[in-house]
C-alpha cells in the first residue's frame, strides 16, 4: 500500500485512484496481485468496500494521507471520523450470503466500484460499471444485489444531469429505452427497484426508494408512459400529494426496521454509546441503589441517548425530513420548510451524515438571511463554520458564498459580487453533468450581477445559455427561474412588451410544477411589467399584485415582500382614480413595510426608491416634517449605494 | 251542472299532492333549500326527514328538547338548536352528528343560515381568488383513530361512511356562509360554516336613540327574549324580532324590531372565508391529535398494566425466597450466566408457563405488549404525525394572511399571536418525532426482552430448542431494557398530561444544541424538550385558541345596532306567549338602477289577540326600503277566520294559513296567497310620534282581506302551525290537528308544465 501511495514522482495521488486500488485489492481473486497491503485483517471482511460507499467525504483516505505525511494527530482524527461515519452502516445487508460468497463477490465489487466512481464525479464511468453489475446480478440471479444496484443507478440518474443515455442502459432495458425519455426511464427504474426491494423485504431499501421517488415527483410531471387515443385528460402538473405520501412512507421505516430479518445489530455498538453515558455524572451505576424520582428523570434521557434504533435507519428517516424541507421550499411554505429543517437539526443531528447536517444548517442560515436579514444570518454562519470546519466545508461554503453575493448585490458592491460568483463557479466539478446545482446557481448569479451592472445584453446571453443548458438536462424547475430572470432583464432595460411573454412563460412553468412562491414572484414581475407600459394598466397590475399577496407576504422573503409593497404603492400612485393626498395611508402603510424590510437587508437601491416614493406621497399629503425625514433617508441610501465599500465592513474579509 | 263543477275543480288552486298521517304532532318543519326534503321536529323531540313522496329517510332523537332547526344553504346539513344551548349539525344523508357546539347557555330559539349569494357586486374592488393549497399538497386529512373496544356507531362519529361525513363538515368546498343563532336570553352568536365562531352579541348591550314622548331618549332593552333573527341575503343586515321592556320607561313592554348592521360580514367576506376555512380545519386536526393521544394513552397503559401485573409477582417470589434483590438484578445474573435463582426459575417455568406448554403465558403477554406497541405506531404514523404536519402548513398559511395588514388586521388576525401559534405547531412536530423514536425503541426492546425470556424458558425447561424457531435477541438490548424500561415507562410519561410538574430531564448536550439552534432561527423557548408530548399539545392548543379568539372579539365589536322599532305592546301577563308570535321575514331582490340590485326586507307577523287591543285578528306586513324608510300595512282577517301561521314565499308573496270559516261541526281551514308588494303600504314616520308603538299609527290604514278575490285552497281539517313553505320547490306542507300532513303544490306554472309533459 505504502508503495502505491508514494508512487513515482509526478504521479498525482487522488482519492479516487487510491480507493480503486483498495477495491482491486479487496475483490481481486487471491493470488493474482501481490501488492503489499497493510490491512490484511480488514481486507478479509469485504466490509471495507461498504465503508467506502458510505464515505462521501474520504476520511479514510485522508487518514492514509496523513499517515503518509507523518501527521499523526490528523491521522487519528480522520480515522475516528471515519469510524464515526461508518457506524451508521452496521447491519447493512451487503454481507453476502455464505453460499454464494464466491459468486457474489464480483457483482458487489462492481456495484461498489460504480458507486465510488460516482462519488468521485465520474458518472459516465459509473453508469457503465453499474450496468455491467446489473448484467452480472441477473446472470447469478442475485436479487438483493440487483435491488441495490438498481437503486444506485436511480440515485445516479437523479443526481447527475444526463441529457442522453440511450445505449448506456440498452443492455438491461432494451424494450423501454428506445421510446422513452431519460426521465421516463428513470421513473421506470425507480418503480422497478422499489418493487424489487419490496418483494425482497429490504425495508431500508424500500424506504430509500420511496424517498428517491419523492425526489423524482418533486421535480417531474408525470406523464403516462404509454398513451393511446386522445390525450384530453392528461393534466400536466406535478403531484405534490404523491411527494407527501412517499415521504411519509419512507419515514415509516422508524417502526419497521426490526422486521427486517437480516438485520442484526452489531454487538458492541450499543455499549459504546452506553459507556459514553456512564462517563456523564448523571448516570452513576447500572442500578442505582435507591431509585428516587430524580434518577428516574435522568434515566429517561440517557435511555433515549442509548436508544437502540440503528444509525442507518435514523439517517434515512432524518433525510426524509430534509427532502420534505426542500419540497416545502419549492412549494412555498416558509414555516414548514423551516420547521422541517429545525426538526432535522434537533432530532437527527447525532445520527445523520455531516453532509446532510451541513445541508440542514445551510437551509436554516439561508432562511434567516431571506426572512430576517443578513446580520442574524452571518452570526449563524459563523457558528456553523466553526461547527463544520473540518468535516465538510463544502456543505457550508456555497451557502456562505451565496449570502455574500446576495449582500454584495444589495449593497451595490458589484465587483465583489462578480468575484464571489467566480468563486462559486469554481466549486463545481468540471465534469459535464456533475454538480449541476452549483453550476446553475453560479450562472444565475452571474446573470444577476451583470443585470445589476446594467449590462443587459451580457446578462441576457448568460441567461439564455443557462436556459439552453437547463433545457438540455431537463431541469424544468430551474427553467422557471431562468425565464423569470429574463423577464426581469427586460423589465430593467425598460422593455415591458418583450418581458411579458417571458413572465407568462415562467408563470405557466410555475403552475405546472406547483412552485407557488416562484409563481408569486412571477406574478409580481408581470405586474411590474404591466405598470411599465403606462398608468392605464395600473388597475390590472394592482389586481395581479393583490392576487399574489397572500403567498408573497406569507412565504416570500423580505426582498420579495418589499418589492411587492413598492409595486403596490406605485400602482396606487399611478391610478388616477385614487387620490393620494386624501388618503395617504393607503400608500404609506405599504411603503413603510417595504422600508422596514429593505433596511434589514441593506438593499440600498430599492430602499432609496421606497424613501423617494414616500417623500413624494408625504409631500402631496402636506406632512413636511416627515417628508424631510424620508428625503434624508433617501439621500443616505443613495450615498451608500455610490460608495459601496466601507472600510469598517467586517464581512469584506470573510472571503 | 257538471260543467260547472268541472270549472270549479279546474280553478281550485294549489293541487293537493298527498295527505298522510303523522305519528306525532309536529312543532317545527323546514324544507331543504336544494332538494325535495322536509325536516320535521316532533313534540317529543325527534327529527324526521321525509322525501317529497313522504318516504322517510331517517329519524334521530338527540335526547334533548329541540328548540329550533334550519338547513345549511347548500342543503347538505341540518343545524338544530337544543334546549341546553347546544347547536349540533347533522348529515342530511343519514342524520349522523357531524359537529356539536355549545354556543349558548340557554335554549336556542332561532337559527338562520345564510350564504353569500356569490354575486359579485361590482364596487370597483377586485376580489382576488384565494385557493386553499392544502388539498394540493396533502392527501386527505387524517381522522380521529377509533377507540379500541368501542362498538362502531356508538360515538356517532365513526363509521364506514365516515369519509362522507368528514367531507361534509369540511369547509373547503362551501361558499361563505354564516349561521346565526339566537337564544332566549337575547344573545346572538355567529359562526362561519356553522363551525367557526366569529361573533357574539347581546342585544341588551345596544342603546339606540328613540323618539319617546316627543323627545329623543337613549333606549335599551331589558329582559328581552328573541323571537326571530334573519340575516339579509347580502349579509349586511340582521333583523331581530324580540319582546322585552324598553328602558328607561318600564311600562313599555312589547314587541320590538331591531336592525343590526352586520356589513362587516359582507365587506370582509373573502378574508373571513379564508380565515374560517383554515382555522376550522386546524380545529378539526387538533381534535384528531387529541383523540390520538387519548387512544394511545389508553392502549399503552392497558398493555403496561398487564405486563406489570404479571411481572410484579416476581418481586414477591424473590422476597419469598428470602433474597434481597430486585427482579432486574436477578434477570441480569441470568443473562450474565452466573446463576439462576430459584425465584426466577419458579417465575419463568411455573408462573409464566402455567399451562402445559411452558411459554404460553409469555407468548400471550409478549403478543399483547408488542401488539399494543404496533398499534400505537400505526396511530402515530397515520393520525398524529400527518395531523401535526397539516396543522403546521395551515397555520403557516394563516401567518401569511396575517401579514397582509391592510386586509386582515381589520378582522382581528393578529400577526404575533399567529406567529406564536406557528412556533408551537413546529415544536409539536419535533415532539412527535421524539415520541416516535421513544416508542419505536421501547417496542423493539420489549420484543427483544420477550425473545430472550422465551429462550430462557426453553432452556430452563430443557426443551430441545430449535434454533430456527427462536427469534434472535440482542443481550445488550436486554440489559438496556432491564435498566431503563423494566420499571419505567417513557412512552407513558410522554403521553401523560397530568397537572403535576413532570418535566423531562434534558441532558446538557441536547440543551446546548437547542440553544445553538436558536441562533439559526430555532425556538427561543429552550424548555420545550422538557415538556411531555401531551403538555406541548395543550400549550399549542391554548395558543391557537388565543389566536382565534382575536377575530371573534374584533368582529363582535363591529356589529352595531342600526335601528330599534317598538312595534306593539304586550300585556305582561301574556309574556310567555310573545315568543310564539308567528312571524316570517324574507328578503327580496329589487332592481334599483339599470344593473344594481338591492334587497328589500319584508317582515310579517300575526298580531296576538290582546284583550286591550282594538287590533284583533290582524296581520302586519312591513317592509324596509332602501333609504331605511319603513312602510307597513295591517291586514284584517275576515271574521270567522283565524290566522294560524304565515310564511313569505317567492316574489313577495305571502302564504297565509287560516282556520275557518268557522261552522258548527265542520273543521275547516284554508290556505291563500297574498301578493305583498301590491298592498297599500303606509309609511311609518320615524319621529313626531304620539305613541312609541309604531303600529298604533297604522290603525287608520287597515286593509281588509277579501277572501273572494284571492286564490284560496280549502283544507278539510283544522290546522295548526307550523306552515312549511319551500320557495325553491313551490310546495307547502300543512299540519292538521288530527296528526296529518298535507302537501300542496303552490307553483301552478310548474304544475302545468309537468302536466304538459
TrEMBL record, chain A:
GO cellular component, one term: anaphase-promoting complex
Pfam families registered for this protein in UniProt: ANAPC5
Alphabetically ordered keywords of this record: Cell cycle, Cell division, Mitosis, Ubl conjugation pathway
InterPro entries: Apc5, Apc5_dom
Residue ranges of every copy of the Anaphase-promoting complex subunit domain listed in the record: 59-158
Domain of life according to the entry: Eukaryota
One GO term of the biological process aspect: protein K11-linked ubiquitination
Keyword Cell cycle found: yes
Entry's family note: Belongs to the APC5 family.
Name of the protein: Anaphase-promoting complex subunit 5
UniProt organism field: Ambrosia artemisiifolia
From TrEMBL, chain B:
Keywords: Cell cycle, Cell division, Mitosis, Ubl conjugation pathway
UniProt cross-references to Pfam families, sorted A to Z: ANAPC4, ANAPC4_WD40
InterPro entries assigned: APC4, Apc4-like_WD40_dom, APC4_long_dom, WD40/YVTN_repeat-like_dom_sf, WD40_repeat_dom_sf, WD40_rpt
One example of a Gene Ontology biological process annotation: anaphase-promoting complex-dependent catabolic process
Annotated ranges, domain Anaphase-promoting complex subunit 4-like WD40: 30-115
Gene Ontology CC terms: anaphase-promoting complex; nuclear periphery
Plastid keyword on record: no
Identification of the protein by name: Anaphase-promoting complex subunit 4
Amino acid at each position: 500500500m505504502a508503495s502505491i501511495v508514494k508512487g513515482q514522482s509526478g504521479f498525482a495521488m487522488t482519492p479516487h485512484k487510491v480507493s480503486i486500488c483498495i477495491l482491486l485489492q479487496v475483490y481481486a481473486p487471491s493470488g493474482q496481485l501481490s501488492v503489499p497491503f497493510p490491512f490484511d485483517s480488514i481486507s478479509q471482511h469485504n466490509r471495507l468496500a461498504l465503508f467506502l460507499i458510505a464515505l462521501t467525504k474520504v476520511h479514510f483516505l485522508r487518514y492514509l494521507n496523513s499517515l503518509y505525511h507523518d501527521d499523526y494527530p490528523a491521522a487519528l482524527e480522520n480515522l475516528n471520523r471515519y469510524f464515526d461515519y461508518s457506524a451508521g452502516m452496521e447491519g447493512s445487508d451487503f454481507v453476502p450470503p455464505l453460499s454464494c460468497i464466491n459468486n457474489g463477490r464480483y457483482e458487489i465489487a462492481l456495484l461498489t466500484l460504480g458507486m465510488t466512481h460516482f462519488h468521485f464525479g465520474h458518472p459516465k464511468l459509473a453508469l457503465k460499471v453499474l450496468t455491467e453489475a446489473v448484467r452480472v446480478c441477473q446472470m447469478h440471479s442475485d436479487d438483493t444485489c440487483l435491488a441495490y444496484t438498481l437503486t444506485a443507478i436511480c440515485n445516479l440518474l437523479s443526481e447527475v444531469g444526463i441529457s442522453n443515455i440511450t445505449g448506456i442502459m440498452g443492455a438491461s432495458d432494451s424494450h423501454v429505452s428506445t421510446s422513452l425519455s431519460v426521465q421516463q426511464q428513470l421513473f421506470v427504474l425507480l418503480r422497478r427497484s422499489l418493487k424489487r426491494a419490496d418483494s425482497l423485504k429490504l425495508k431500508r431499501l424500500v424506504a430509500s426508494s420511496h424517498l428517491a421517488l419523492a425526489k423524482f415527483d418533486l421535480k417531474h410531471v408525470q406523464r403516462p408512459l404509454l398513451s393511446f387515443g386522445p390525450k384530453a385528460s392528461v393534466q400536466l402538473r406535478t403531484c405534490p400529494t404523491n411527494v407527501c405520501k412517499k415521504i411519509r412512507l419512507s419515514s415509516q421505516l422508524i417502526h419497521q426496521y426490526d422486521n427486517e430479518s437480516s438485520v442484526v445489530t452489531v454487538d458492541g455498538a450499543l455499549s459504546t454509546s452506553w459507556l459514553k453515558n456512564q462517563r456523564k455524572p448523571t448516570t452513576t451505576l447500572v442500578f442505582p441503589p435507591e431509585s428516587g424520582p430524580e434518577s428516574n428523570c435522568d434515566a429517561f434521557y440517557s435511555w433515549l441517548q442509548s436508544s437502540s434504533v440503528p444509525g442507518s435507519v435514523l439517517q434515512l428517516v432524518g433525510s426524509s425530513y430534509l427532502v420534505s424541507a426542500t419540497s416545502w421550499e419549492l412549494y412555498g411554505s416558509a414555516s414548514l420548510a423551516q420547521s422541517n429543517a429545525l426538526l432535522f437539526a434537533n432530532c437527527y443531528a447525532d445520527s445523520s451524515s455531516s453532509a446532510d447536517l451541513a445541508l440542514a444548517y445551510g437551509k436554516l442560515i439561508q432562511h434567516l438571511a431571506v426572512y430576517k436579514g443578513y446580520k442574524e444570518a452571518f452570526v449563524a454562519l459563523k457558528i456553523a463554520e466553526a461547527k463544520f470546519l473540518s468535516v465538510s466545508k463544502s456543505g457550508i461554503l456555497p451557502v456562505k458564498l451565496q449570502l455574500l453575493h446576495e449582500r454584495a448585490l444589495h449593497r451595490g458592491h458589484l465587483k465583489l459580487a462578480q468575484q464571489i460568483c467566480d468563486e462559486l463557479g469554481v466549486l463545481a466539478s468540471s465534469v459535464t453533468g456533475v454538480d449541476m446545482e452549483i453550476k446553475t446557481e453560479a450562472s444565475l448569479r452571474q446573470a444577476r450581477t451583470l443585470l445589476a451592472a446594467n449590462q443587459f445584453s451580457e446578462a441576457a446571453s448568460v441567461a439564455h445559455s443557462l436556459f439552453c443548458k437547463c433545457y438540455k438536462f431537463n431541469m424544468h424547475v430551474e427553467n422557471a427561474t431562468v425565464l423569470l430572470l429574463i423577464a426581469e432583464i427586460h423589465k430593467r432595460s425598460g422593455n415591458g412588451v418583450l418581458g411579458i411573454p417571458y413572465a407568462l412563460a415562467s408563470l405557466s412553468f410555475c403552475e405546472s410544477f406547483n412552485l407557488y412562491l416562484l409563481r408569486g414572484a412571477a406574478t409580481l414581475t408581470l405586474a411590474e411589467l404591466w405598470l411599465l407600459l403606462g398608468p392605464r394598466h395600473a388597475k390590472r397590475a394592482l389586481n395581479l399584485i393583490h392576487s399574489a399577496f397572500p403567498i408573497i407576504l406569507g412565504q416570500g422573503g423580505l426582498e420579495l415582500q418589499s418589492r411587492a409593497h413598492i409595486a403596490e404603492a406605485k400602482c396606487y400612485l399611478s391610478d388616477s382614480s385614487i387620490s393620494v393626498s386624501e388618503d395617504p395611508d393607503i400608500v404609506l402603510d405599504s411603503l413603510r413595510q417595504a422600508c422596514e424590510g429593505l433596511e434589514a437587508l441593506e438593499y440600498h437601491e430599492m430602499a432609496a426608491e421606497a424613501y423617494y416614493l414616500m417623500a413624494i406621497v408625504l409631500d402631496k399629503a402636506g406632512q413636511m416634517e416627515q417628508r424631510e425625514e424620508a428625503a434624508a433617508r433617501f439621500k443616505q441610501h443613495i450615498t451608500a449605494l455610490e460608495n459601496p465599500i466601507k472600510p469598517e465592513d467586517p464581512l469584506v474579509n470573510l472571503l | 251542472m257538471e260543467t260547472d263543477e268541472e270549472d270549479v275543480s279546474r280553478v281550485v288552486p294549489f293541487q293537493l299532492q298527498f295527505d298522510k298521517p303523522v305519528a306525532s304532532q309536529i312543532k317545527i318543519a323546514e324544507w331543504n333549500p336544494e332538494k325535495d326534503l322536509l325536516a320535521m321536529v316532533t313534540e317529543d323531540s325527534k327529527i324526521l326527514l321525509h322525501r317529497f313522496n313522504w318516504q322517510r329517510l331517517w329519524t334521530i332523537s338527540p335526547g334533548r328538547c329541540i328548540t329550533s332547526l334550519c338547513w345549511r344553504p347548500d342543503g347538505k346539513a341540518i343545524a338544530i338548536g337544543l334546549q341546553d344551548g347546544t347547536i349540533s349539525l347533522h348529515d342530511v344523508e343519514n342524520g349522523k352528528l357531524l359537529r356539536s357546539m355549545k354556543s349558548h347557555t340557554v335554549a336556542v330559539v332561532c337559527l338562520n343560515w345564510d350564504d353569500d349569494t356569490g354575486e359579485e357586486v361590482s364596487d370597483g374592488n377586485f376580489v382576488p381568488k384565494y385557493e386553499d393549497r392544502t388539498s394540493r399538497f396533502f392527501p386527505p386529512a387524517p381522522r380521529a383513530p377509533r377507540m379500541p373496544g368501542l362498538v362502531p356507531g356508538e360515538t356517532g362519529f365513526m363509521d364506514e361512511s365516515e369519509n362522507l361525513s368528514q367531507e361534509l363538515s369540511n369547509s373547503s368546498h362551501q361558499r361563505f356562509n354564516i349561521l346565526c343563532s339566537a337564544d332566549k336570553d337575547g344573545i346572538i352568536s355567529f359562526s362561519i360554516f356553522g363551525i367557526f365562531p366569529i361573533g357574539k352579541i347581546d342585544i341588551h348591550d345596544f342603546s339606540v336613540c328613540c323618539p319617546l314622548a316627543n323627545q329623543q331618549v337613549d333606549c335599551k332593552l331589558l329582559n328581552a327574549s328573541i323571537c326571530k333573527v334573519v340575516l339579509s341575503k347580502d349579509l349586511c343586515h340582521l333583523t331581530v324580532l324580540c319582546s322585552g321592556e324598553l328602558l328607561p320607561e318600564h311600562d313599555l313592554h312589547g314587541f320590538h324590531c331591531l336592525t343590526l348592521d352586520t356589513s362587516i360580514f359582507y365587506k370582509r367576506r373573502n378574508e373571513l372565508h379564508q380565515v374560517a376555512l383554515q382555522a376550522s380545519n386546524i380545529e378539526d386536526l387538533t381534535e384528531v391529535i387529541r383523540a390520538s393521544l387519548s387512544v394511545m394513552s389508553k392502549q399503552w397503559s392497558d398493555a403496561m398494566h398487564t405486563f406489570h401485573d404479571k411481572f410484579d409477582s416476581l418481586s414477591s417470589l424473590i422476597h419469598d425466597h428470602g433474597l434481597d434483590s430486585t427482579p432486574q438484578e436477578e434477570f441480569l445474573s441470568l443473562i450474565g450466566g452466573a446463576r439462576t435463582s430459584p425465584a426466577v426459575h419458579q417465575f419463568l417455568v411455573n408462573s409464566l408457563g402455567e399451562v402445559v406448554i411452558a411459554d404460553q403465558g409469555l407468548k400471550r403477554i409478549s403478543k399483547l405488549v408488542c401488539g399494543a406497541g404496533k398499534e400505537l405506531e400505526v396511530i402515530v404514523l397515520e393520525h398524529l404525525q400527518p395531523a401535526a404536519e397539516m396543522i403546521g402548513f395551515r397555520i403557516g398559511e394563516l401567518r401569511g394572511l396575517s401579514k397582509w395588514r391592510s386586509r386582515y388586521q381589520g378582522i382581528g388576525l393578529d400577526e404575533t399571536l399567529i406567529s406564536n401559534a406557528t412556533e408551537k405547531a413546529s415544536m409539536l412536530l419535533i415532539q412527535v418525532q421524539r415520541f416516535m423514536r421513544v416508542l419505536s425503541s421501547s417496542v423493539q426492546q420489549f420484543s427483544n426482552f420477550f425473545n430472550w425470556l422465551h429462550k430462557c424458558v426453553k432452556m430452563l425447561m430443557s426443551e430441545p430448542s430449535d434454533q430456527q424457531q427462536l427469534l434472535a435477541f440482542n443481550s445488550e438490548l436486554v440489559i438496556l431494557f432491564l435498566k431503563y424500561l423494566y420499571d419505567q415507562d417513557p412512552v407513558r410519561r410522554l403521553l401523560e398530561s397530568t397537572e403535576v410538574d413532570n418535566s423531562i430531564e434534558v441532558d446538557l448536550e441536547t440543551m446546548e444544541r437547542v440553544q445553538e439552534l436558536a441562533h439559526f432561527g430555532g425556538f427561543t423557548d429552550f424548555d420545550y424538550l422538557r415538556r411531555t408530548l401531551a403538555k406541548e399539545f395543550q400549550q399549542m392548543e391554548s395558543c391557537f385558541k388565543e389566536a382565534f379568539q382575536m377575530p371573534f372579539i374584533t368582529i363582535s365589536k363591529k356589529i352595531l345596532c342600526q335601528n330599534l322599532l317598538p312595534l306593539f305592546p304586550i300585556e305582561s301577563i301574556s309574556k310567555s306567549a310573545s315568543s310564539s308570535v308567528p312571524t316570517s321575514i324574507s328578503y327580496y331582490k329589487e332592481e334599483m338602477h339599470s344593473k344594481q340590485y338591492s334587497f328589500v326586507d319584508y317582515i310579517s307577523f300575526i298580531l296576538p289577540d290582546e284583550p286591550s287591543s282594538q287590533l284583533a285578528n290582524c296581520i302586519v306586513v312591513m317592509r324596509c326600503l332602501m333609504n331605511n324608510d319603513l312602510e307597513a300595512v295591517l291586514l284584517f282577517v275576515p271574521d270567522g277566520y283565524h290566522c294560524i301561521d304565515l310564511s313569505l314565499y317567492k316574489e313577495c308573496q305571502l302564504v297565509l294559513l287560516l282556520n275557518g270559516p268557522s261552522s258548527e261541526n265542520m273543521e275547516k281551514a284554508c290556505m291563500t296567497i297574498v301578493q305583498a308588494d301590491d298592498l297599500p303600504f303606509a309609511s311609518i314616520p320615524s319621529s313626531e310620534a304620539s305613541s312609541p308603538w309604531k303600529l298604533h299609527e297604522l290603525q287608520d290604514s287597515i286593509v281588509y282581506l277579501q277572501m273572494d278575490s284571492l286564490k284560496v285552497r280549502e283544507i278539510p281539517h283544522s290546522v295548526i302551525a307550523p306552515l312549511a313553505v319551500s320557495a325553491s320547490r313551490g310546495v307547502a306542507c300543512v299540519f292538521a290537528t288530527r296528526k296529518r300532513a298535507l302537501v300542496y303544490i303552490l307553483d301552478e306554472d310548474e304544475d302545468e308544465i309537468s302536466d304538459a309533459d
